[in-house]
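User: Can you write out an input/output pair for a complex, sequences first and structure second?

Assistant: Here is one pair. Inputs:
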Amino acid sequence: MTNKEKPRMEVCLSPALLHLYDTRGAIVVIIDIFRATSTITAALDNGAKCVIPVASVEECIAIGASIPGSITAGERDGKVADGLEYGNSPGEYPREFIKDKTLVLTTTNGTRLLHMINGASDIIIGSFLNLDAICSYLLSHKKSVLLGCASWKDRFNLEDTLFAGAVINEVAHAFDINCDSARVARHLFDSSGGDFIGFLKDSSHYKRLSVYGLEKDMAYCATPNLHPVVPILSGREIVIR
Amino acid sequence: MTNKEKPRMEVCLSPALLHLYDTRGAIVVIIDIFRATSTITAALDNGAKCVIPVASVEECIAIGASIPGSITAGERDGKVADGLEYGNSPGEYPREFIKDKTLVLTTTNGTRLLHMINGASDIIIGSFLNLDAICSYLLSHKKSVLLGCASWKDRFNLEDTLFAGAVINEVAHAFDINCDSARVARHLFDSSGGDFIGFLKDSSHYKRLSVYGLEKDMAYCATPNLHPVVPILSGREIVIR
């Protein structure tokens, strides 16, 4: 297969750059490593019935109230948001707690990006926790791919881009990649030497969340393949098939 | 000096992200390595009276017509634009040609970014050709700095970010840097091992311009310190003081 016959793979470094990419018919991987997409992946692998991502605390409360037995969750400034029950840590959703429940989760960056995508074939949820599962999905579907970094309030961040680089490292042979954002992601992956959490300790988000004592949480989020599932958006719900 | 007492240094990876940064009172370095800021730097060091950056071919022709003896220049799709006289290559502006002349230059990415900056203390023009001169300027002025990558039609590019990394490599000790865009720029610089043009051969813009046979031009643009001047915007003109 020549390069031109391969499907295209690109990386969008921030939601503020999303308009530069054509997502029609493509698989879009939403990436919000610290911590939305990590938490969604963990909760679903631990048996959650589905995750409903919402933008605001108000919406989270309203949807939670309409679904019996659902869990409302989300943080603002590192604490459980007023009116919600749980936070945005993968460790809060072990199987014995989350199994068969609906998790209504409000996050800022990841949810916003997810709701901005138009016309995609599939919107799937990527994190180090399901790295290989995501790569297998992309390799088997043979469609154009946009790796979408949720970033932090539209600012480029290292952790989401590093994950994009980890994906590219595994699947580059099967895609046509001519995108400097993909190249920089790959360079970050190479620079990390595979020590993701060590590499990410010098990142803005790590420093921000460390203030709240979330180092163990972040180390968990940077561990590959603990939850080998592919969460996919179906209507308003994120599910595993 | 503690970190908090140092002036802030940040990197803006694309004009589409400029709204995230506060440029009031800051020094903004405009970076458009291939090739606007390289050409501006070379022309001024070679004796040009000033460079007037303009957004459109029409504006270039109109301003050129109003200034006796001026040169109108700019490219579209790798060729001198219709109605203009010269291109966007530093090699076109040797001293014997450009000395004491006004260069009216239309470029897309660099000019657009330059005109988007509001309230900056100084807007200066950075390229590998004047790397050390830019670093000396930043170190001596002790103000907040935004390294502004012109990018390519708002898309992240390697060459501008690599230059930002080269600056950071020289001046980081004197600035408070807590910005993942600055960190990724520094990682790119480290990855390049100092072989800038070798590193940039795997970039979208290099591949695009190679189609027009501009490899030598780009190698020139990636050579440090051939033109050790600091071009600065003064009104509508870019000059050296």
